[in-house]
């Protein structure tokens, strides 16, 4: 299957699931292009896709340095962990930061956004499985952290993001994220990847992060699950 055929199939599938669940409101497809070549990304762009996600700042810069000049209407999401020393570059390049996960990062992003005059929409990453090796704020700390982000740092927090533990059924985690977003009056929910987007849509996902189902496997994939070390 070509990238274009995969896109058609996945979009059709998403439309069917959205209809099955009588969902209203948009479900945004964020195409994850980590470890893909620029040629593959251009095949995605040729289908009309404009919303993309990356999990590393440096790779994103390499991918988008030239593409950004040639395509309009792009929206780039950062979906991987962000080191504070890369915050400046991240604010300059991305349009949405999905992985705000600790006070030091929130404060640094706040300073950078202020300096660059770019108030980007942000999501808080929640470590729903409380996994030691995964980033994200623990669910119990979310209320205080959200208040810190909004009141102290003046970040524009619009939603929550999670990556369920690899070895568990994801529904529990998706339902937790939905409940947390509802409690805190946040409208965006970034959850659901190639293997579990159907479940995620059922639990109210507004942003799906899909790579493999569109591009096929990634080369040299040693760290198969995101954000584990
Ligand atoms: C790689 C990655 C995805 C996409 O995973 P696929 O299984 O390839 O669809 C989604 N979210 C994050 C944070 C990722 O790192």
List the uncertain runs: none
Count of alpha and pi helical runs: 9
- Categorize the overall geometry: globular
Biggest sheet: strand arrangement: 7-6-5-4-3-2-1-8
Order of helices and strands: HEHEHEHEHEHEHEHEH
DSSP E strands, number: 8
Annotate the secondary structure layout.
Layout: H1 3-20, E1 28-32, H2 38-46, E2 51-54, H3 57-70, E3 75-78, H4 87-93, E4 96-100, H5 103-116, E5 121-125, H6 142-152, E6 156-161, H7 171-183, E7 188-190, H8 197-202, E8 207-210, H9 212-215
Parallel strand pairs: 1-2, 1-8, 2-3, 3-4, 4-5, 5-6, 6-7
The chain binds pyridoxal-5'-phosphate.
Pyridoxal-5'-phosphate (PLP) binds next to strand 8 and helix 9.
Structural write-up:
The chain contains nine helices and eight strands. The chain is an alpha/beta fold. The mean pLDDT is 94. Residues 32, 34, 55, 79-80, 163, 193-195, 209-213, 226 line the site of pyridoxal-5'-phosphate (PLP).
Task: Please outline what is shown here.
The protein is of the alpha/beta class.
Can you tag this structure with a few keywords?
229 residues, alpha/beta, 42% helix, globular, binds pyridoxal-5'-phosphate
């Amino acid at each position: 299957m070509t990238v274009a055929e995969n896109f058609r199939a996945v979009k059709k599938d998403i439309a069917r699931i959205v209809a099955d669940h009588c969902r209203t409101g948009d479900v945004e497809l964020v195409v994850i292009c980590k470890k893909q070549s620029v040629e593959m990304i251009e095949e995605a762009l040729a289908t009309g896709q404009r919303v993309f996600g990356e999990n590393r700042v440096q790779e994103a810069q390499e991918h988008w340095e030239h593409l950004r000049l040639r395509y309009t209407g792009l929206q780039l999401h950062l979906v991987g962990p962000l080191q504070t020393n890369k915050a400046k570059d991240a604010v300059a390049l991305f349009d949405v930061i999905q992985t705000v996960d600790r006070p030091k990062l929130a404060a640094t992003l706040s300073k950078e956004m202020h300096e660059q005059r770019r108030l980007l929409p942000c999501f808080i990453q929640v470590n729903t499985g409380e996994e030691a090796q995964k980033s994200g704020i623990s669910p119990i700390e979310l209320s205080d952290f959200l208040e810190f982000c909004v009141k102290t740092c003046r970040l524009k927090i619009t939603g929550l993001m999670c990556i369920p533990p690899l070895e568990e059924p994801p529904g529990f985690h998706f339902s937790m994220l939905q409940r947390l977003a509802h409690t805190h009056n946040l409208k965006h929910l970034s959850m659901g990847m190639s293997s579990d987007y159907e479940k995620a849509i059922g639990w109210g996902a507004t942003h799906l992060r899909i790579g493999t189902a569109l591009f096929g496997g990634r080369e040299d994939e040693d760290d198969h699950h995101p954000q584990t070390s």
